[in-house]
């Protein structure tokens, strides 16, 4: 299967991977023909990238970052916790969060198990779920990415659990923000942006009231928008004042934000998201953590069309876990000419060959 951008699909390809809603209900079945009306609707719903059938790439089968069963369980748990907290009166909010704390920890433990057992580079592009509320999917994605960094950096299981729960709850302050502001498709006013930024303080104030929630988890919510140079919010703290878990979650948060499907912005591809992180590696983000993240993810996902130096074009066939930005490529064209017999090129074994362009269309 081949990765395609919904905004540039011109013909009517066949969908290669089923699309679900956040509850696991099938919205579009694998094998459906994607008419212009369907593609336009996907685009309006914020879906930027999908996998389509392509005779030269049909044997490429990207694997999900999490099992479908665990993703559904994690999403349901997050939705239940966030929704119950939001809808309950002040006297019951503590009870609800404390009651569901064990369930959150259980989900985090299962995610750790799957991330540690995954010998392949992490990619969430193959997990296409359409959600009415971005917060739930974003919180789960940030948890997966944060744990991948933590595993790569060798954190203990106890530390990983704290990181995972902190990532799950890092945006809980947003449930107290006006939904119209959160989902506004146009540019925010200064006043509206100030309201959005208040979620870090609100989340911290809420979480620290609960004796069963570790203080470090509350600080993940408090500090995930702080930056090394003091340019972040809400306090503008810098350097060693930032907790290591919050620095890690901040990296995962930015990466998922720029690579996720949003109605008002086309999602970036992983290599573009990584470039944004590296651009801030001196002043904003911990470079060691970015390097650990790079080792964990598929920089060029399976099924992505790429242009190589030397006039070759091809599709990413599989990943090299040791060097995640040097995948194995199935070369389909040379100097613009389609090859009768495509061949494999392992970029880890060919250091002189560079990826010069990508084309998800």
SSE series: EEEHEHHEHHHHHHHHHEEEEE
Could you give the order of strands across the largest sheet? Answer: 9-8-7-6-10
From the helix content, strand content and strand pairing, which structural class follows? alpha+beta
Question: Sheet bearing the most strands, described?
Answer: 5 strands, antiparallel
Mean pLDDT: 89
N-end to C-end Cα span: 12 Å
CATH fold-level assignment of the largest domain: Hypothetical protein af1432
Instruction: Specify Rg, calculated over alpha carbons.
Output: 21 Å
Number of helices: 12
CATH architecture call of the largest domain: Orthogonal Bundle
CA-based shape:
globular
- Number of structural units classed as domains: 3
The fraction of residues in strands falls at 5-15%
The CATH homologous superfamily of the largest domain is termed: Hypothetical protein af1432
What is the strand tally?
Answer: 10
Report on this model:
This protein is α+β, with helices and mostly antiparallel strands and 361 residues long. The chain folds into 3 domains: 2-52, Molybdopterin biosynthesis moea protein, domain 2, CATH 3.90.105.10; 68-296, Hypothetical protein af1432 (Orthogonal Bundle); 305-359. Helices cover 43% and strands 14% of the residues. The protein contains 12 helices and 10 strands. The strands form 3 sheets. It has a 5-stranded antiparallel β-sheet, with no helix packed on it. Strands 3-2-5 form a 3-stranded mixed β-sheet, with no helix packed on it.
């Amino acid at each position: 299967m081949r990765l395609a951008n919904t905004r540039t699909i011109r013909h009517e390809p066949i969908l290669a991977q089923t699309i679900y809603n956040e509850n696991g209900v099938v919205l579009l079945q694998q094998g459906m023909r994607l008419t212009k009306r369907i593609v336009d609707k996907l685009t309006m719903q914020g879906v930027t990238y999908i996998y389509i059938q392509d005779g030269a790439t049909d044997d490429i089968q990207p694997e999900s970052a999490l099992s479908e069963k665990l993703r559904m369980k994690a999403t349901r748990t997050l939705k239940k916790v966030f929704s119950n907290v939001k809808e309950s009166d002040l006297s019951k909010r503590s009870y609800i969060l404390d009651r569901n704390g064990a369930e959150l920890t259980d989900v985090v433990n299962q995610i750790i198990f799957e991330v540690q057992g995954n010998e392949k580079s992490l990619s969430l592009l193959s997990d296409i779920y359409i959600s009415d509320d971005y917060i739930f999917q974003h919180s789960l994605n940030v948890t997966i990415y944060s744990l991948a960094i933590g595993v790569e950096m060798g954190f203990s299981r106890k530390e990983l659990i704290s990181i995972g729960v902190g990532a799950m709850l890092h945006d809980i302050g947003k449930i107290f923000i006006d939904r119209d502001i959160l989902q506004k498709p146009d540019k925010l006013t200064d006043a509206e942006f100030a309201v959005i930024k208040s979620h870090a303080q609100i989340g911290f104030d809420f979480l620290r009231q609960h004796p069963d929630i570790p203080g470090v988890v509350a600080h993940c919510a408090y500090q995930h928008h702080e930056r090394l140079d003091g340019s972040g919010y809400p306090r503008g703290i810098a350097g060693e004042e930032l907790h290591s878990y919050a620095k890690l979650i901040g990296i995962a948060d930015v990466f998922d934000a720029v690579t996720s499907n949003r109605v008002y912005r086309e999602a970036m591809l992983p290599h573009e998201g990584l470039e944004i992180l590296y651009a801030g590696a001196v002043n904003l983000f911990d470079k060691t953590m970015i390097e650990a993240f790079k080792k964990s993810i598929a920089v060029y996902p399976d099924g992505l069309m790429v242009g190589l130096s030397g006039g070759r074009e091809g599709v990413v066939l599989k990943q090299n876990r040791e060097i995640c930005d040097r995948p194995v490529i199935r070369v389909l064209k040379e100097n613009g000419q389609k090859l009768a017999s495509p061949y494999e090129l392992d970029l880890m074994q060919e250091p002189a060959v560079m990826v010069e362009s990508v084309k998800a269309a």
